[in-house]
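INFO  loader      accepted 1 record
INFO  loader      residues=162
INFO  predictor   begin
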Amino acid sequence: MKKSLLFIFIIILCSCTYSVYTTGYPHLKSIIIIPFENKTTQYNLEENIHISLSSNYENDGRLKIVGISPDCQLEGEILDYSNKILSYAGSNVEEYEVRILFKISFIDLKKNNIILKNDALQLSETYSSSEEISEFKTEEEAQEKIISDLFDYIIKESLEEW
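INFO  predictor   done
INFO  writer      dumping tokens
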């Protein structure tokens, strides 16, 4: 009886160490995030992206953000930004769409190769003051979701191996 309880306890303990995070590049332990170049007129967008990406990498935990001797590097450009009316309700604007066009590179500095390169990554999100139409109420909330989607895209296309 004691042996079977011990066996069950060990199985439970071992199963707790499983992680859903995978990496196709186990030699990558640290990253430097180069501030994106903003080629738009949208003020402070590059700063918001840098802060959010840095925070997301810290929370993710797979790569440590460093300033000296990184294993990999993330760099990008904000090529275009638009905030356009998507729909009307009578004479009132009902819904807007924010679109951001990025150029992204994720580089393995240890092996000197490009893991991810996308010169035309377009992400978009809608917002409306009406909760029934859109999840987001402001342009800033839509921007935050786009930046979150950007991080998810970078992780999925660079580190994850499925």
